[in-house]
Design brief:
By secondary structure, this protein is of the alpha/beta class. The protein contains 14 helices and 14 strands. The chain has two domains: 117 residues, Aspartate Aminotransferase, domain 1; 233 residues, 3-Layer(aba) Sandwich (Aspartate Aminotransferase, domain 2), CATH 3.40.640. The strands form four sheets. Strands 2-10-9-8-7-3-4 form a seven-stranded mixed β-sheet, with helices on both faces. Bound molecules: pyridoxal-5'-phosphate. Pyridoxal-5'-phosphate binds next to α5.
Length: 383
């Protein structure tokens, strides 16, 4: 029986979320609900795979096996109904590694790359650190959540070389619909704009259906570089495993060659067996996890509406991240953070880094007792 409410202890886990409290918040006594991993144990089948690998007692150079990419292909077919081409998929240690390298390969210095705000901070970092120019298409706040402004989208994307799509969206929690995705595809095809589609959260759908933009026809597929990973799905971020699906086999081979030039030849000793096991045997666990996350979200949104009504929050359609609107308090991010840390004893990710000042992101992927504690702390800070 999986128990997502079991007491957990990450004190010896070298966890960025827990061990990083002093460095990033100046105090160690905070409840950390910031970094996007889960305070939930990975599936037993994954731990078994890791133990079996450890039992081999030899951890020399590795070589990618066919079962690794094969497990992703089967998983995506089963979960999302999309057929991926085995030959066009490459391993990459992390999605951020892929973003960095894809930007280098697909664009030249000074080129414009469009993203949508609020945004996952690494999009901006990777574009700017490569000397490319960030262009922002702001998402628009509507009663039911963020929507895209397609007039501004077209205006800006036509002068961009690449558009980075985040689907599902971190931090807004949107699952872009078939209509929205088709519109993006239509505009990008019209102007020949390449799309890097970050779909790392695509297995964490709580409401709706994930539509991978590359699945919308060959014309758009020719422009799309899809980033996928089992690490968010099964809470394995520390093992470093992800994938990129390319439009052509040649582009995949070029990417693999570029990665090998910086010494990233093959998946590490542990990640292949763990990911294969997760994809092949982890579906039942995932379904239970999604139920747990839905329950936590329901509980948190209800608590906030009743106890801290000045905070506005919507249920995300995907991810385990709540995007809290704190603008009613009229404070800048520094002051909001101070209130959270000093008055609440709570560590959240502040909105400024996402180009969403006045907001904070709260990670609810934890046992219920921890969520209750976190919400009480939030109330102490802002109630
Ligand atoms: C949208 C998005 N992309 C990428 C990442 C990071 O992925 P990785 O650890 O594989 O670099 C995250 C992590 O939170 C994310 O939210």
């Amino acid at each position: 029986m999986v128990d997502f409410n079991k007491k957990i202890d990450r004190s010896k886990n070298d966890s960025r979320k827990w061990a990083g409290r002093k460095k990033y918040f100046g105090r160690e006594d905070l409840l950390p609900m910031w970094v996007a991993d889960m305070d939930i144990e990975a599936p037993d089948v994954v731990v078994e795979a890791l133990k079996n690998k450890a039992d081999q007692k030899i951890f020399g150079y590795t070589m990618e096996n066919e079962r690794y990419i094969g497990s992703l292909v089967n998983w995506v077919k089963k979960r999302h109904g999309s057929k991926l081409s085995f030959e066009r998929i490459a391993h990459s240690p992390t999605v951020v590694t892929s973003l960095n390298l894809l930007i280098k390969i697909l664009t030249n210095e000074g080129d414009q790359i469009m993203i949508q705000s609020p945004t996952y901070p690494q999009f901006v970092k990777q574009i700017e650190s490569n000397g490319r120019k960030v262009v922002i298409n702001e998402l628009v706040e509507k009663e039911n959540g963020y929507e895209m402004d397609f007039i501004d989208f077209e205006e800006k994307v036509k002068n961009s070389v690449v558009f980075i799509l985040c689907n599902p969206h971190n931090p807004a929690g949107r699952v872009w619909t078939r209509e929205e995705s088709s519109k993006i595809a239509e505009i990008c095809v019209k102007y020949g704009v390449k799309i890097i589609s970050d779909e790392i959260h695509s297995d964490l759908i709580l409401d709706g259906k994930h539509i991978s933009i590359a699945s919308l026809g060959r014309e758009v597929e020719n422009l799309v570089y899809t980033c996928l990973s089992a690490t968010k799905t099964f809470n394995l971020a520390g093992i470093q495993s992800s994938f990129v699906v390319f439009p052509t086999r040649k582009e995949k081979e070029n990417f693999v060659e570029e990665l090998s030039l910086i010494g990233v030849h093959e998946p590490n000793s542990f990640c292949m067996d763990m990911v294969i096991s997760a994809y092949n045997h982890g579906e039942e666990w995932l379904e239970k996890l999604l139920d747990h996350l839905r329950g936590n979200i329901e509980f948190a949104v209800d608590y906030i509406e009743k106890n801290i009504p000045q905070i506005r929050v919507k249920k995300p359609e995907a991810t385990y991240l709540l995007w809290l609107d704190l603008r009613k308090f009229g404070l800048d991010d520094e002051k909001l953070k101070e209130r959270l840390v000093e008055d609440g004893g709570l560590a959240l990710t502040m909105g400024g880094g996402f180009m969403g000042s006045g907001f904070a992101r709260m990670n609810i992927a934890c046992p219920r007792y921890m969520l209750e504690d976190g919400l009480e702390r939030l109330k102490k800070a802002f109630g």
